[in-house]
Amino acid sequence: MAVLEVGRPSGHAVSGASRLRVEFMRDWKQAAARWSAVDQGTVFQSRLWLDAWYGAFDDVSPLIAIVSEQITGRDVALVPLVRRVQGGIRVVEFADLDLTDYNAPLLGPGASDDPAEAEAVNRALLAALRQLPEGADLLRMRKMPATLGGRPNPLVSLGRTGSCSLNGNLIEVDDFDAYRASIKRMQLPRSWRVFSRYPGAQFRLLTDADEALGLLDTMDHQQQSRMQCLGLHFNLNQGARARFYRDLVRSGIGQGYAVVSELRCDEAIVATVFGIRRAKTFVFLRISNAGRRWSHCSPSRLIIERTMAALHGQGVREFDLSVGNYAFKRRFGATPLPLTDVSIALGWRGLPLVLRDRSAQRLRRHPWLAEKVGRALGRLSHDQE
């Protein structure tokens, strides 16, 4: 049976269920200092990513859950969550706000691959959430990969694998020459020859933080122009989102975590890339180009290929074109990575949203129907995007 202690000196509550204990901490820096285990999440559960995210968004309430063993004190999992109120519904969700491609817990030395242990973690977490002093109506966890560094993600067992409308797009590259040959239909060598005719044409990986921050300004402008042409809203250059990316570059570029690249010539910055790297994995997060004036040299595709080649030379072997099912990702040879969504009512007020989320998941099992509904709502098809 769960117990709840409130008003501890450190300002957090502790809930224990059976042999597991769940601590909810309201300050990310405190939680990061408390967490002693080596990070075992995805590249998005890096300390650098979470430092920048929790530091940028002050309109949500941090709610970091740390699951540990009651007797030994060994850390089992850290779940980076927030709590916010939407339309009167108190929602607990990952620290995401549509910026984090893969949401997941960090696994500690007490984590087990046994499905029974995963069930115990989930029971303890749900029991603790239901006893939050400030209350919670809905737990919504989206975009969860099934494995974390080769280990099972315990939270995925709460839902159905592949229930998310989005998926990752992975490319494994051992021999880059062989990979280039496999995508020869894209004619990227020809695109490079065309681009190289411009005076000062070059590709660069930026390593200076100030220079990279200046390139983010260019990226913002190029992406906003693109979204305006499509009639879509763009907000990555505003408020907390703009601050988040800039904090990530300041703290991460010197450590090789944040990666910024450009195609430029004397006339213009023609294309940009921003992504994150850990060990042998790199994720493309943002790509921009200078518009139709440069379409004859396929700048977005070209900077993807040039960035991959440069990072492959530095030891990267897994490239992720981020979430989404766009046609160009298939042409790069990406393999879909299924993701899982979970919605659980923590109180009666959360039930209508759970039913709505599950209806949307059932709709996605029939792609032809989902596309028909999307068109009726005025959404672009993947190829149009």
Would you write up a description of this structure?
Helices cover 33% and strands 27% of the residues. Helix 2 (47-56) runs antiparallel to helix 7, helix 5 (188-196) crosses helix 8 and helix 6 runs antiparallel to helix 7. It is built from eleven helices and 18 strands. Strands 1, 2, 3, 4, 5, 6, 7, 8 and 18 form a nine-stranded mixed beta sheet that branches. A seven-stranded mixed beta sheet has the order 12-13-14-15-16-11-17, sandwiched between helices. It has a two-stranded antiparallel sheet with strand order 9-10. The chain has helices at residues 28-34, 47-56, 115-129, 176-182, 188-196, 209-230, 239-252, 299-312, 327-331, 351-364, 367-376, and strands at residues 3-5, 13-17, 20-25, 61-69, 75-86, 89-94, 106-107, 138-144, 147-148, 151-152, 167-172, 202-206, 258-264, 269-278, 281-289, 318-320, 335-338, 340-345. The chain folds into two domains: 3-166 and 339-376, Aminopeptidase, CATH 3.40.630; 174-316, Aminopeptidase (3-Layer(aba) Sandwich). It is of the alpha+beta class.
Key descriptive features of the protein:
Aminopeptidase; disordered N terminus; 2 domains; disordered C terminus; alpha+beta; elongated; 385 residues
